[in-house]
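dumping this here so i dont lose it
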């Protein structure tokens, strides 16, 4: 397995203003109290206070951020994009910084600003970062409850690790590590599963599932209908101690079939 190249410690980009102080500054600029903002967004006052004082471990959900953007007059996706950036692990950010610097060595680039402006995606599309046979390992896919992506909105093919698979001919293929036990015995914690976005997903396939809120899970999927005839997906764990989950099809924004599995050989 290919490791990420070692990067100098001075490549970390300057940090943007944290979301909490940014929200509080804008709220006060508009003359709004926390009670008024809570009334406009439907977000509780205590939670808003925790956000503003940076006492929540992760950024709010995309739904809450969109409500805050509208209520406080931010540009569309301004808070959402910054939150996605904050959720991305430091090693992936360091690799992106390396990518940007190598594409323009004479002009120092602020990674955060390049990402927020969209320039990062343009740079990535012009740089050959990995060999065409390398498949990015993008995150740890949950084999239990849905888990957030760690590569939200980042250029395709950029990851903290890569695997090779000569039998994969899908340029959009990606891999993810399994964690959790709901897909045992076929998949164990730590297994790396390769998914193909361009492969046809059929009922009964093991698949990487992305929900409309950006969360993901790994389940066996069955295409079914509810009592009203509306299309639903039954997400069926392979581990019999877990119950299936039934989700309306419109709540699913991505469905990618599993094709290959890397598994550690047990040592006796």
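and the seq i came up w/
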């Amino acid at each position: 397995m290919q490791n990420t190249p070692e990067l100098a410690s001075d490549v970390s980009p300057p940090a943007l203003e944290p979301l909490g102080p940014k929200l509080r500054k804008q709220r006060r600029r508009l003359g709004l109290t926390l009670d008024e903002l809570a009334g406009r967004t439907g977000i509780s006052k205590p939670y808003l206070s925790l956000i503003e004082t940076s006492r929540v471990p992760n950024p709010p959900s995309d739904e809450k951020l969109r409500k805050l953007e509208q209520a406080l007059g931010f540009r569309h996706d301004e808070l959402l994009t910054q939150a996605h950036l904050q959720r991305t692990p430091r090693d992936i950010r360091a690799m992106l910084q390396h990518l940007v610097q190598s594409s323009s060595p004479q002009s120092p680039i602020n990674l955060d600003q390049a990402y927020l402006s969209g320039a990062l995606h343009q740079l990535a599309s012009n740089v050959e970062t990995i060999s065409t046979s390398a498949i990015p390992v993008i995150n740890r896919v949950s084999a239990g409850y849905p888990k957030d992506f760690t590569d939200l909105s980042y250029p395709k093919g950029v990851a903290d690790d890569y695997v090779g698979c000569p039998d994969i001919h899908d340029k959009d293929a990606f891999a993810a590590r399994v964690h959790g036990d709901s897909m045992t015995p076929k998949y164990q914690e730590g297994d790396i599963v390769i998914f193909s976005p361009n492969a046809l997903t059929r009922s009964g396939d093991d698949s990487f599932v992305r929900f409309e809120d950006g969360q993901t899970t790994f389940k066996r999927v069955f295409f079914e209908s509810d009592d009203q005839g509306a299309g639903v997906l039954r997400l069926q764990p392979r581990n019999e101690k877990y119950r299936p989950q039934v989700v309306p099809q419109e709540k699913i924004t991505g469905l990618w079939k599993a094709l290959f599995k890397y598994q550690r050989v047990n040592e006796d």
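The first helix runs from residue 19 to 29.
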